[in-house]
Amino acid sequence: MQAEPPHRNVGPAPPVVRTDSPWPVVAAVLAGLWTVGFTVLSQLTGWVADQVLLASGLDRAVPLWPMISLSTVLLVGGPALALALLPRSTAVRATGRAWLAATLALGALGLLRAVPPVHHEAYLAALATTAALAALVVRRLAGRRAVGGAPATDRPGDGAVAAEADDRTVRRPPGPTRWTPGPVTLFGVAGGLALLLPWVWVGALGGLLETLLAGLAAATLGTLAGSLLGGAFWARFTVGTPPAPARLVLVGGLVAGVVLLPVAAGVGHSGAQLPLLLVLPPTAFALAALHAAAVRRAQPGTAGGDPDGRPTDAAAPGGAAAGAGWLVGLGVLGPLALTDPEEITLLLATTRDVPFWVTVAAGGGLAVAVLLALGYGVLLARPGTRPPSRRVAAVTAAALLVTVGVVAAGPGQPGLHGERLLVVLREQADLAGVPAGPPGRAGRDARAAEVYRRLVDTAERTQGDLRRELARLRLRPTPYYLVNAIETDGGPAVRAWLSGRPEVARVLVSQRVRPVPAPAPTTGGDRPAPGTSVWNVRTIGADRVWSELGVTGSGVVVGSSDSGVDGRHPALAAGFRGGDDSWYDPWNGTRAPNDSGGHGTHTVGSAVGRDGIGVAPGADWVGCVNLDRNLGNPARYLDCLQFMLAPFPPGGDPFADGRPARAPDVLTNSWGCPPIEGCDAGVLRPATAALTAAGILVVAAAGNTGPYCGSIVDPPAPYPDVLTVGAVDRDRTVTEFSSRGPAPGGAAKPDLLAPGAGVLSAMPGGGYATLDGTSMATPQVAGVVALMWSANPALVGDLARTRDILRETAKPAGESTRTDAARQSCEGRDSTGAGVVDAYAAVRAARAG
Fold first, then answer.
1. Predicted TM-score (pTM) above 0.90
2. What was the pLDDT predicted at 502?
3. Among 139, 380, 453, 538, which has the highest number of CB atoms less than 10 A from its own CB?
4. What is the pLDDT of residue 817?
5. Annotated catalytic residue: which of 562, 595, 665, 798?
6. Cβ(572)–Cβ(592) under 8 Å?
7. What is the 8-class DSSP label of residue 816?
């Protein structure tokens, strides 16, 4: 057994060479302000740019974040490099080195945002790897400086001698050699758990692999922070005998806060870094207090171990680095593991959805960070007081750990809520040669029954082996027949396995929204019932259809797939078809029509609402919920389209209990499925083809990504068998927001236009409101079709003739004033369709036919 070396008092270190010139300090202050300002501004700018592209329906700019990272390295790293090389002050040079290292880390981490957000597991794995490599490089460079020795002018004062041993092995007394965490490390754990607490309350975990990778990434980021803020860093702010804790906490905390800002800026996909920009830098003062406590315990004459003689991290400030790692690692775990970056979006910011709760968590984290700085500064670093013992620190950390567990299991959202996979099979049903049957509803019902039979037979024949294999692996497969596909659990490994199977065409990510602590308040309307026909109904002549032709849409059923419908609204209650197969909610399993978002109620009101708001007030409606908190995925869109082909009772099997004879006649769809929700261009194409073969007319919104041409891209609007609708204003002028054609491949889109600006319709709770969008225009065209088929039941299911009549009777629309680029991109192309739908002319033509 090796004898314990004799105790050696640490004598005064060579004095730190100082300069009387204030300019190095002034330069450091200016460089710090520049670092903070540019980093925050560039991160906000990048996120806003992402949101603008998303809202505009434009392709994601993959080079955006690499360019921001490179510019940050050049524009922020340059001043930091100058500070690291030029001043005579050792503290200023140390500050420059730390800021430069953090900026380079941001440059490396920021490059990873080129990974699409939909592949979050791949991003987290790359983040963990990059952070680990960065931490290793920082430690190696620090080790070389320590081995090579520092010049006399670069050495710390008395109190920092122990700090130079930050990464060295602590000598242990005879006996067990296990390392026991001391107060500093335990208080770091406690601080990290306190920072995690708000996220545990408001957030929700993703999938298992996603959660494990987020934990690994958080651990490596904590290691990186501990490497950047190791003993060599704090030594430059530990001056005097004994050291002045106030200087260490205040000055060192400020400098460390600037170090943590670039680290925070590099953590998470676009959006997830924003709360960390607010929360992580203030924790630097708590880290400074932890290090001050470690230095105090390492001073000669102070107790460096527990009363029982076990070695702890208090004897060497390496414990402060470990404390920093725990505090920062747990601090970044919240945004990484408990939020989905795709949901931190301005598209959800109008309600109390994920952006609201992320803001709440960020505010709570900031309050915790400030309290940690104040509490640790008083508890651990105040002169004249003995720092708390290891037992107190352990009890504090344990209490916070229990609190986190209780909150996660109680007011939090326990469980895993990861994305699923949609497996699209190669073989799709052959619907060629479906007999036309007699005209009218009888022929439509016969076609729908034959289409349903062929779709189910194909799915049952081709899915069996794969469904059994997925069930054996406990991946919870959900089969579909409208598109021959299966939704299942699984991460990247399962996706790779499925993609290699011969019967599989492709595998898509089926997005899932994570639960929130409380539902958003129901979106209501503050306008009274109009009492007479609204302007848009008059504009297309629907009121004349009622009064002059005596047609209101009776005998026709309109199907709505949207956020839901308030079935008790006075303008809608009488129109609900009723029965046990007229409502389906695959998101929440509700049994009666309801709607908290308002979008679906508004659109159904414009199609069939009473009180002057609907185009076909005599028609009935059925509904399905395919949007939850304004987000969907390909599986949920399929759920509703499948229900519309063959409705089934609650709890029924869509494959066995479908009733194609109860299918609605025309479908209004004011939604689109962009890539961020998991759709590709062709995923819903078999669905709309099957509905068309069954004689069910699919009407869909063009989208709100105008005025540029070629902006109708999200399914199902671009499909040729879908009746796609754009929007005009009161002057019959195409609105700026209305998406233009042509569709990908050159198809002329939209097909028709309808009023979509300032449309008054029903909202949940019995009120009314005006909304803008092609979503508002689409149900009016569906209502016109209901009027046509009510006037001439022989047209039911005759989609070709119905389309011809609508186009032939449409009235020209005026083109909006657009930018030169938009005008040039549309030059010589049909980008706004046949014109504005004319209900009166269309119904007259339908009756004549």
1. no
2. 96
3. 380
4. 57
5. 562
6. no
7. P
